[in-house]
Specification:
The protein is 35% helix and 21% strand. By secondary structure, it is an alpha/beta fold. It has an 8-stranded mixed sheet with strand order 5-4-1-6-9-7-10-8, with helices on both faces. The protein has a two-stranded antiparallel sheet with strand order 2-3. It is globular, with a radius of gyration of 16 Å. It starts with a strand and ends with a helix.
Length: 219
């Protein structure tokens, strides 16, 4: 079973501060227009280009607005759920997704990662599936070094790994993702860095300037 989890529960604080400072209408970054579609929809469509069999989108803050945009894109393969509480860290949002998918490989993507192509996401999935120890490997988008990694410094989503790893390391953490990845690698979990197709795939949309850069280069 191959599942995807898209986390879309963030507070949007950095983007809102930028918009307020610039006198721009305050809007959740997931709903900003990117080539005629909201950021979250572009991300979802890239995920759907992979061989996933189900996709869970986990909402939190601003859930009503994001859910309204997703309405036309949900079906028996794509489902939207919400965190029980809004004030949780990324680890709990991701765990909420994990416990709502079937056991197997999980492709984990942030909702604000529309720059990561479906091709690269598929490479993450294939690298994990083809590894000799598929239950103990994390295939992750490389930020610096590629190939087998001995540190998770600077790493986050997107990545692919077996759901059993996430169920082991996520419960009770209430933390950002990177410290959890570091614990995994220190415990002997295999990490493999998949190279980005281009520099644009490494851009995170956190600030207004990030959005303008992506909007200019996005195709």
């Amino acid at each position: 079973m191959i599942s995807a989890i898209i986390t879309a529960a963030g507070k949007n604080r950095r983007m809102e501060k930028d918009q307020e400072r610039l006198g721009i209408e305050v809007q959740n970054k997931l709903l900003l227009d990117l080539d005629g579609k909201p950021v979250i929809i572009q991300t979802l469509e890239h995920v759907q280009k992979t061989g996933i069999e189900e996709c869970i989108i986990v909402l939190g803050h601003h859930s009503n607005h994001v859910k309204a945009v997703l309405g036309n894109y949900t079906d028996n393969k794509v489902k939207v759920i919400s965190n029980p509480e809004n004030g949780v860290e990324l680890s709990e949002t991701l765990l909420n997704g994990v416990i709502n998918v079937k056991d197997g490989l999980c492709l984990c993507v942030a909702g604000d990662q529309p720059t990561v192509s479906g091709e690269t996401m598929q490479k993450l999935v294939d690298t994990a599936l083809q590894h000799s120890d598929a239950d103990n490997v994390v295939s992750i988008l490389a930020r610096k070094d590629t190939g087998y990694l001995n540190t998770a410094e600077g790493l986050g989503m997107p990545f692919a790994c077996h759901s059993s790893l996430l169920k082991k390391y996520l419960p009770g953490r209430n933390d950002n993702l990177n410290p959890i990845l570091e614990d995994m690698i220190n415990d002997g979990v295999v990490f493999y860095g998949v190279p980005a197709r281009d520099e644009l795939e490494l851009v995170n949309i956190n600030h207004w300037e990030d959005y303008l850069k992506v909007k200019k280069l996005f195709k």
